[in-house]
Amino acid sequence: MKNFTYCNPTRLVFGRGAIARLARLIPEGRRIMITFGGGSVQRNGVYDQVAAALAGREWVEFWGIGPNPTVETVREAVALGREHGVDFLLAVGGGSVIDATKLIAAALCGDVDPWEIVLAGRAGATVSMGTVLTIAATGSEMNNGAVISREETREKRAFHGAYPVFSVLDPEVTRSLPRCQIACGLADTFVHVLEQYLTGAGQSRLMDRWAEGILHSVREVAPAVLGEERDYDALADYMLAATLALNDMIAMGVEQDWATHMIGHELTALCGLTHGATLAIVACGTMRVLRGQKRAKLLQYGERIWGIAEGGDEERIDRTIEATEAFFRSLGLSTRLAEEGIGEETIAEVECRFDAEGVRYGEAANVDGAMARRILEACQ
Ligand code: NZQ
Ligand code: ZN
Q1: CB neighbours (10 Å) of residue 318?
Q2: CATH dotted code for 178-377
Q3: Which listed ligand is nearest to 243 at the C-alpha?
């Protein structure tokens, strides 16, 4: 196990009716700005719950943070926040609203353009923020990562901001999610675990078992949360699994990959594909191309998650990748580029972008432009 430092400062407030506890979580006297997406919270009652919980307090509202939030929208929010002297942010929404709010929190503390903060990769001082999560997927509610797009150049980039000081998670609010968003959330959670687990074998028994616990839980709850009757306990496990998959808990002392995500971000930037949908396509391509390097862990993953223990190593790995692809298909997601109308032009652009930046992603730092091309070709 490698040396590491662990500190996750986000207070998690979880369960039915938890939104009512908001007032106690935000210190008195703060000048609050609440950030929202496109309006789902007005239709499903979350807005009313937040407003009731904060009765007697004052706040300003910023609406219209879209999926794959853009720096252009963030600039508008920063201007509103400055105008009102805001010193506390409450993000009410999914990963997109929370990520955008992490950038607003950083931009309010200085006078540089928000895109400069994204390019720097790490924010300095930030305004405190809390969240009310409405979709389980990204883990943004309990981590310091954020991914921001720039419309002008069709780029999508990650940076590190501050952790939310608290996040309120009521699984009931996920009932109004469309099936496709839940499918993408499940795929995102599953692949977050793979990015931290499917690297070299034998680094930490404990991290392996926690990671495998999340993978099993996602598999088990998937049919229940995708069905018509959404059982509360299944929704609760779905929501908590997504948080634990990317809150640093399974990353202690182990290598991480993230090549699938970085390629996926390019597919979103270039083709507009939803984040989780990109991962359902790219993850198996990564396994196919890097099966030699990930061999021992692929065998462990196949045996412990999919029960594939018989046969020669190559056959077991083939069956493991097939089982993973079948799982994504069972969620109703595409697993091949052609199904989404993505072809050579996009592959060439991803290769070109990786080459231009000189990046080398993955646990072995070997996913450059040429390797990204091979991975995408393996998804055709
Ligand atoms: O905007 P509204 O109207 O609220 O609708 C949203 C949006 O259209 C809707 N929605 C959310 N909660 C709902 C609901 N609809 C009905 N009922 C509810 N309870 O769902 C749509 C998608 O929301 P979004 O926030 O975009 O989804 P998600 O949480 O999957 O976030 C995706 C973004 O997070 C980034 C992704 O790249 C993408 O930009 N990620 C952030 C990460 C992080 N910060 O750690 C890690 C991830 O790997 C990911 O990259
Ligand atoms: Zn993700």
Answers
A1: 17
A2: 1.20.1090.10
A3: 1
